[in-house]
Amino acid sequence: MRRLLVLILAAGCDSPAPALQDAYVPLDAPAREGAGPGGGLLPALAFAVVGDTRPANLDDTAGYPTDIIRELWREVAGEQPRPLFAVTTGDYIFASTSGAEVDPQYDLYLAARGEYDGIVYPAMGNHECNGYTASNCGPGGTTGSPPNYTKFITRFLSPIGEARPYYIERFAASDGSWSAKLVFVAANAWTAAQAAWLDTVLGEPTTYTFVVRHEQHDADTAPGVGPSATILAKHPLTMLIVGHSHTYRHVPAYREIIVGNGGAPLTSAVNYGYVLVTRQPDGTIAVSSREYMTRAEIDAFRVDADGVAAP
């Protein structure tokens, strides 16, 4: 449906669409300037990553790390150049599935996230199911659809035009020099349908492929980690962006960055922070991990479009 709508819009424009080099782009990248639902055409590829913002204890809404989250998003908004969009790696709440604290914690998170007024594309974490890493929510799952899950769909995904916890955002350069897709995997809402979808969308040709999944490679009790890894191994991959562990870490062997230091209780000496991902003039992707409050650089590296370390 999205592909058909884009073609119809392009046919009805008074001026021709930009000349785009990648055959994938005119079919699939939304015909709009700027990031929005479904993606868009961008002057540059530059985005932020924030992960794991839940409180330390179950139903501890009073202890929600609002001040930390607010400051992180304020710093993201103040970066120069400003990130054109942001992605988040999951776990926005720590609430019982009874639902009494679900909305209050989502309220606190979304209000704090409002410090950044760009579009944010969120991944689903295990706490958006029932909190257990092995949980599996949604249609076809074994854990059902508690408020943690249903309210995540309606409050986080519906505003960006998505109805499922797994989805794809397609981007292209305004001048046609590159294309990119961000593929969001829901390892805690895993089904055969998601597996087939993932294989299909990863097969779409783009210059860059970023996959966002809550759990890292070794958190394999999550139902979708092992199966999605098998599918990922069949396709080009620039970077796997995950959270779950409450730290920042670069794992080159898996082309993986763990961004889980967004306010949840820390599990290493790495401080709270966020990550900036930016395409460079030579086509490489630069990653900079920044510390909370000071914006000091924790780590920096570059990779090529295939995720291989660049000099």
Structure description:
The chain is an alpha/beta fold. The chain has a single domain, classed as Metallo-dependent phosphatases (Purple Acid Phosphatase, chain A, domain 2, 4-Layer Sandwich). The protein is built from seven helices and 13 strands. It has helices spanning 2-11, 24-28, 66-78, 102-113, 147-157, 192-202, 225-232; strands at residues 39-42, 46-50, 85-88, 120-122, 167-173, 179-185, 208-213, 239-242, 248-251, 256-259, 273-279, 285-291, 297-303. Strands 1-5-6-7-8-10-9 form a seven-stranded mixed sheet. Strands 4-3-2-11-12-13 form a six-stranded mixed sheet, covered by helices on one side. Strand 5 and strand 6 form a beta hairpin. Helix 6 (192-202) packs parallel to helix 7 (225-232). The longest helix has 13 residues, at 66-78. It is globular. The model is unreliable at 1-27 (pLDDT under 50).
User: Helicity, in percent?
Assistant: 10-25%
The overall number of domains is 1
Give the percentage of residues in beta strands: 15-25%
Order the strands across the largest sheet as they lie in space: 1-5-6-7-8-10-9
Arithmetic mean pLDDT: 91
Order of helices and strands: HHEEHEHEHEEHEHEEEEEE
Helices, by number, come to 7
User: Strand tally, please?
Assistant: 13
The description of the largest β-sheet is:
7 strands, mixed
Report the structural category: alpha/beta
Q: Considering the protein shown, what is the CATH homologous superfamily?
A: Metallo-dependent phosphatases
Topology, element by element:
Elements: H1 2-11, H2 24-28, E1 39-42, E2 46-50, H3 66-78, E3 85-88, H4 102-113, E4 120-122, H5 147-157, E5 167-173, E6 179-185, H6 192-202, E7 208-213, H7 225-232, E8 239-242, E9 248-251, E10 256-259, E11 273-279, E12 285-291, E13 297-303
Parallel strand pairs: 1-5, 2-3, 3-4, 6-7, 7-8, 8-10
Antiparallel strand pairs: 2-11, 5-6, 9-10, 11-12, 12-13
Helix pairs in contact: 3-4, 6-7
